[in-house]
Amino acid sequence: MPTMTDAQSWTLIIGFLTTTVAVLGLVMTSFHRTLQSGLTAVRHELRGEIGTVRGEIGTVRGEIGTVRAEIDGLRTEMRTEFRRVDQRLDHLDRDVQALTRHVFDRPE
Questions:
Q1: What is the DSSP string of 15-53?
Q2: What's the whole-model pTM score?
Q3: 69-108 pLDDT, tens per residue?
């Protein structure tokens, strides 16, 4: 059985370590590229979704503006109606006071 010299043993050890480091480097590079391409895809997808959400936010803001305009119109209409009711109540109060004076201020 042939025996190995000390130099041959070290050559085999260094060769094995070099091969291991090379394979590890290839695996790491492959993993890095795969991870990077996956993250790039996720980044592009998120940008698309963010753009969609921004568009929807713009639509909601427009709808909020429409609701505000409707509320302002309703507020104006309600103020007008309240003024009209206040005037009617004032006239009614005046008429009730006149009737009360007419009925109760008479000497009997």
A1: HHHHHHHHHHHHHHHHHHHHHHHHHHHHHHHHHHHHHHH
A2: 0.51
A3: 999 999 999 999 999 999 999 999 999 999 888 888 866 5
